[in-house]
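Inputs:
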Amino acid sequence: MNPYIPILVIGAIGFGFAAFSVGVAAITGPKRYNRAKSEAYECGIQPSPQAAGGGRFPVKYFLTAMLFIVFDIEIVFLYPWAVTFDKLGLFGLVEMVIFILTVFVAYAYVWRRGGLEWD
Amino acid sequence: MFTSPILDYSLLAPILIILAGALIGVGVEAFARKEQRAPLQLGIALVSVVASFVQLLRVRNVRSLKAAIDSVAFDGATVFMQGSILVLAFFALLLIADRGNFVAQASAIPGSQDEHSSIAEGKSQTEVFPLTLFAISGMMLFAAATDLITLFVALEVLSLPLYLMAGLSRRRRLLSQEAALKYFLLGAYSSAFFLFGGAFLYGYSGSLSLTGIATAIDVNSGNDVFLLIGIVFLMVGLLFKIGAVPFHSWTPDVYQGAPTPITGFMAACTKIAALGAMLRIFYVALSADVVMWRPIVTVISIITMLVGAIAALSQRDVKRTLAFSSIAHAGFLLTGIIALNQSGLKASLFYLVAYGFATIGAFAVVTLVRDSAGEVSDMNRWVGLGKKSPLIAGAFCLFLLSFGGIPLTSGFIAKFSIFTAAYESGNTTVVVFGVLTSAIALFFYLRVIVMLFFTEPKSDAVTVSVPSLKVKLVLAASVIVTIVLGVYPSLLLNSAQSFASFLR
Amino acid sequence: MTTRTDLVYLIALPLFSSAFLLLLGRIADKWGHFFATAISASTFGIGLYEFFAMRSRSGDFRAATQRIFEWISVGTFKVDASLLLDQLSICFVLLITGVGTLIHIYSIAYMSHDRDRRRFFAYLNLFIAAMLLLVLGDSYLNLYVGWEGVGLASYLLIGFWNERPAYATAAKKAFVANRVGDVGLSLAIMIAFTQFGSVTFSGVKDAALHASSAALTALGAMLLLAAAGKSAQFPLQSWLGDAMAGPTPVSALIHAATMVTAGVYLITRSNFIFDASSTARLLVVIVGAITLLFGAIVGTAKDDIKKALAASTMSQIGYMILATGLGPVGYAFAIMHLLTHGFFKASMFLGAGSVMHGMNDEVNMRRYGGLGKVMPITAVTFGLGYLAIIGVPPFAGFYSKDKIIETAFNAGGARGILLGGAALLGAAITAFYMTRVVVLTFTGQKRWADGTHPHESPSLMLIPIILLSVGSVASGFLLNKGNALVHWLAPVVDASGAEGGAELFKPIVVSALALGVVVLGVLTAVLKYRGTVPVEAPAGSPLTRFARRDLGQDDFNHRVLVLPGRAITKSLVGMDFHFVDGIVRAVGWTLSYLSLSLKKVQNGYVRSYALLMTIGAIALLATIWLVTL
């Protein structure tokens, strides 16, 4: 079990620090309750009980996020390829072209079916 | 040092062809005109399935562990399972292509103006074909993968399209969407188990490949607790996919909510892939540690059979009933893993094909029984269907008899051989329970048959719609296979015998 | 047993013809019936050829086999789809194809007005194929395939006129009774496999030599249950009468000559099991004796000519079953009675069909009368069949039935007297009710419904009847001549062993006794039914008065003969309900309770499902932990 002792130690320290911070704040901090304090924090915007448009967020946000992730991942794959490009040679090039084409097909689908239009 | 990998494309081609077909399908969705899409998609899907099958036949005698470095095994079991997945998927695709099962516009809110107008415009969601192809490729890879990462990727590739397709039902859309969400959440949960289990096995053996794990078990290096947790968590992920108790709870809800052709596809093909992967993991990686896992697999198998058979008794919905029957069959199939011998593998392969055909046939019948609002899956309204449409009802009975394991149907030979294999390996308990639960299940199947044929039909608007050519093909194939495998099983048993081997 | 020959054509021909006709559909409507008949005739031809080929071979080489393909090969369990044609099966092959072909010919005319004649013939061919498979299979499993096949063909044919309302219950009854029988057969196969490791006849025979008597008795009892289901024997006899809803040629072929005798075949084929277990034999004779009396008594109460004949079939098969239970000597006599019965009962059924054909499908014998004059040929052939069944020498039934009665008396001790007495009593009642049928149908005054113009049937129907009645005259004499059949069957049923006990009576005394009771039965019937036949033509209120008196008569029969039987049945059923059914109910109740509680777990909430999965995973971990530590 030796190799795990450091992990245990780190875990214990982490837990201890969290407990310590909360505890110290509770003991030493000034306690002034007001209305603003009891409200949920929402990036400085006045919190509303419901999101605009009947409680539903438009699916557009979600679509954009998904597209971002798709291309983000493409980049993630491109980096290691770029690093080992000389060692992989032609094989790597072909595979990467296929990979990009594949992602491109998905992109074409999104584009043609109106996924990129905001309204 | 980094060297470029060597891939054996001819052996990967069956999977690659399906993936290419799927990509072309996505392209068609992007560029083809609305009214051209459905026939084009069906054509592409069928052609790629057939082409993939042909390629598989061409390389069926090749045996290699190096198809994709060390992560895909191309052995007898792979060929057989990929072949059966392709054949069953072919018929499932025909069923999927039959009109009126899928939603007009999936993004429209159920019951909204959007939905009505999309129906009026005659829209249809043809993405289901590329999604099916993606799922098929995942299944094929899942049955062949020999390392934990590839297994996980394949698991996700096969699961994600299925989550989506489960939500595409044309009628009762809320139920369908609920099913899809449930399937997704629980599926993600089980995937997490699978991944976690994989991590523990890596921690135990220092290797991701199944043979590496087997070696580690052999020399008994590493931490037994890790191995134990690894096996159990990996098992949770796999048992979830085949629908074994207590990881079965999604099955009835999803089977009921999903569009019927998708349910058929899921029931037949996913089972092959998931059981295929499970067989490979247990036979190749964990066989040395059999004393540890055999007792639990036995217990799970018994509980699964019992729960499946007993719960089916009180169901009133045909699709839910078939779901519980599929759970019971998962239990029977687990006996093939428990047997852990060559005849167990052979019997499992045969069982999967026999069960797959009967299942697709049964769901094909379900798509035909309709009233003005669409499919009628309430069993009480199936009463007396034998009078209205003896042929279709007769076919349904045949499939039920096959599920029940009545002689002269494929189900009998399947059950018989899988129980024999388990018996030969000395696992009598599971065989005894298997036979007992078969008897319970039989009670239920016979009740349905009596209901269909010997009860007066109610004056009801339920009709059996005239099957289209595609559905006719599916039904004919399922009936013929079910009977032929029952009367002349050597046809498939012999080839199952010759393909029943794992490369290590 | 080394002779090999191509037997598969016997089965393949009618099977393919059946599939062919069903698949072709309406295109084959014009010639389908001729095609099917030709196929049936050609199987008869093959049967004859095989028979003569077999006769030309010397004793040990007579049985022929053919291995068609390896059927199931699972682990150590291997079954081939193999056929076996020996001295026993050839008798059946000839009976099935011969009588079958005649009935095909008859049906061409009988079904000529039916829209679905082609389908009917396709089913008939299917039946022939399945029945041939049943008698040619060389293992219990192959036999089982044929067994289910004839069941299927039988349902299809009973239900052929499914617009008839009685069909539903009839088919249901037949379905249930046969399923019970099938369970018997499948249990028998399982017992054979687990105890003897083989399901072929020869394998089981070898293993039976040194098997425990408990296994043999259980196997015998299960085989008897199977036979009772298929052959309408007590206590599974009830379906046969209702099965008469099918077209008459079907009743003649399936429910008189061939399929219902499959039980007799099964027991004779399994002679090595019954020879080795006296308990199983005792069960067989009890079932046989009860059924032969039961059927005969029911026969006296039926007004429907087909149901009367059906009851008589039940009773005659009772004789055969009784004979098979009498040990090695009985088998040959059972088969002899089976063959002669095949002829005379088929001829009478076809005769009944001919009568119905002329009488607008009327089946009530009280609406017949005096038909002998308008249908002379039918009347004469029916009369020959009648003489055969009641056992008047030198007609066929005399030889075969007499032998059975004789053997029953020779069973020894009180058992012999009881069984012989039952057989003798059965013969008397048979004479009574068959005379009643003949008297009511062919003699006396006309009691036809208005607008009926009875006429003799076309020659296409009469020729088969005539040929069959030739059989019912001569077959008994021929089979009995020099104990021909007994010697022929000797290698199969192994009658060389213990000849029955000491003769209780001399054969001639038994014959005289049998003849005596037959004459008594005939006279009673003649006296009884001559008196009640009305002089008036049946019309208006005289008809109703006549009918009422007639019903009184019927009520009498009903009260004296049927009601006690029914009371007994009822109490038996009551016991069944409370006891056997009680257990079944308890099991069913427990299962549905469990099932409903499982339903509660399936509550539809993802959170509960996820919780269940988590608990499951933890339980798995804990179990393994406990197992391995």
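The CA atoms of residues 300 and 426 of chain C lie 11 Å apart. Flag for discussion at group meeting.
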